[in-house]
Design brief:
The longest helix has 20 residues, at about 1-20. The protein is built from four helices and 21 strands. Helix content is about 10%, strand content about 35%. The chain has a domain at about 40-165: Glycosyl hydrolase domain, family 43 (Tachylectin-2, Chain A, 5 Propeller). The chain has a four-stranded antiparallel beta sheet, with no helix packed on it. A four-stranded antiparallel beta sheet has the order 5-6-7-8, with no helix packed on it. The chain is mainly beta and about 400 residues long. It starts with a helix and ends in a 14-residue tail after the last strand.
Length: about 400
Amino acid sequence: MEKFIAIAVMAFAAGILSAAAGEFKSFKPGQIMPDNNGVHINAHGGGFLHKDGVYYWFGEHKTEGAGGNLANVGVHCYSSTDLYNWKDEGIALAVSDDESSEIVKGCILERPKVIYNAKTGKYVMWFHLEFRSADGKPNYTTARCALAVADKPAGPYAYVGSFRPQKGRMPTDGEVADCASIDKSFDDAQIDKVLANNNYKMLKGRGFAFVRDMRGKGQMARDMTLFVDDDAKAYLICSSEENATLQIHELTDDYQNFTGRFARVRCSDWNEAPAVFKKGGKYYLFASFCTGWAPNSARSYVSDSIYGPWKSLGNPVEGTPEQMRTTFGGQSTYVIPVAGKKDAFIFVADSWRPKNAIDGRYIFLPVEFEDGRLVLRWRDEWDLSFFDK
């Protein structure tokens, strides 16, 4: 036993020295990822920004135990020039001790993403926010997207506020190709009756949750991502309508509000964990089914327009039945375009550990394109030379 402990200590020490020296030269999906201090990277549900030759990784800072799934610290940031070695840049957005704050300690703050606005010179962060519940237990009824802004990529970010978008608005004309606009069998009297009885669940798969929120608080915004197109237009893509439907919202020129132009896509498909990227003029989307923390089969889609229609490409995973059923035990969070390499993209997923949140792992895998499909294959270890083939 003493010999085993000594070997383990030596291995851990070697990992610290390797990280400090910047000597990691490959990805090892699902394993501990030490930062420059030898500490496992703490940036879950993350997003990535590439600016001036540096990658920035933003994610949820988890703490130990099941209570670590709540926001006890904030959004952590790391930086890298090679995607293998990451420097701890500290907390980019801290939760508040002010009981009146929307992001008070104990709220739920998930899937932070950051984009840079060249017109304003600001770094803009959006994330999924659930207000802290009175009993301190996870509660997903708020369903808001929230905004913070900074002058530097690593922050600090100043919290601006949270939103339920598109109150009183219908999808943009001609941009509802994925969904019937609204089920015409619902007249105002029927809608009022169901609202009064709070019995929308039997109808939500048919677009009723959309009508409820359009007439009420505004559209729900849960699992989310950001995407900036070639023309510098930016979009917030989120799970909405009780997670039954994805919504794609165009942001204003400063990336800090909504233009009102939006679409409902893949209605009643029950997608979450969206990750969007673009290749060869086509838009691609990874997502997962809604099974809480438990992994499930990944989904993939393609479209000629950001607004759809989005065609299903099926499960992108190729491997064993278990790998295909669970997406290697992970759930999508982002796709990183590799700077300096043509058509090189990295699929990033979280392997959640809800009973001990801080122990969550990360899965980095190359995205492959075969016969019009997206393909993901497990690799115990790989490096960026994969894209030189």
